[in-house]
Fold this protein.
Amino acid sequence: MAIDLTNRVCVITGCAEGIGAALATGFTARGATVVATDIKPPVLPSVAMSLAWDVTDPAAATRVMDAVVARFGRVDAFVANAGIYPRHPWDEITPEDWRKSQAVNLEGSWWGCQAAAKVMVPRGYGKIVTVSSITVRMGTGNLTPYIAAKAGIIGMTQSLARAVGAQGVRVNCVMPGAILTDAEVRLFPDQETVLKKVNEAQAIPGRIGPEAIEPTFAFLCAVESDAITGQVIAVDQGMTAG
Ligand SMILES: NC(=O)c1ccc[n+]([C@@H]2O[C@H](COP(=O)([O-])OP(=O)(O)OC[C@H]3O[C@@H](n4cnc5c(N)ncnc54)[C@H](O)[C@@H]3O)[C@@H](O)[C@H]2O)c1
């Protein structure tokens, strides 16, 4: 049976492209009422609402959640997907590079999670999904500020899961592997070489598209995963297996 999100109000960050766009489209096809957000309102015709939300602005997190509750009455699920992953050799990282990565990837996720939990706790139910990265386990050398932030997201997820579990709010984390997005193709136009490296690293060869990771997010936003909280699930075709 397909994962069903009928009538679930789902707020997602970073939906203009990549994984977030696939989540917004996929969740909508599963019957969800999707509120798609990005720095500028994402252009996704099928979603219920598109809003501007720069996740580095804590006040914007509260504004968005309030707007969603005013329009749809509740927030059933929140996915803190927005992220940036610029690469820097370790000895060229500037304080600004470091702060920007924490501001978007770690703090931006936190303010969204906090604002979502604040509207979920009084209802006694909600699902929050954060996004880490398998680079936390692989230790990719030129992504230090990003990996520090993405490792922090795991701790944040586990802590929040404990904090709001008694109030019915579930908090879990998806750890994507090497997902083939438009942004990746722009960054690495030589996809033949990328495919070779990916195939060597993964237990199951072949690229993972954003649509292939969407069902894991859908599951974590659906009632079927209500017994799961504080967990990290890698979707990486076995890149981090064993
Ligand atoms: N693609 C991968 O291989 C991969 C692997 C591991 C983890 N991830 C994580 O998955 C998430 C999505 O990645 P993606 O590959 O789809 O990236 P992407 O670059 O394709 O899309 C990211 C989106 O986030 C938005 N964004 C950036 N800064 C923002 C801000 N301050 N406020 C609001 N939105 C902002 C961008 O506008 C963009 O639409 C990120 O958290 C990323 O770290 C991706």
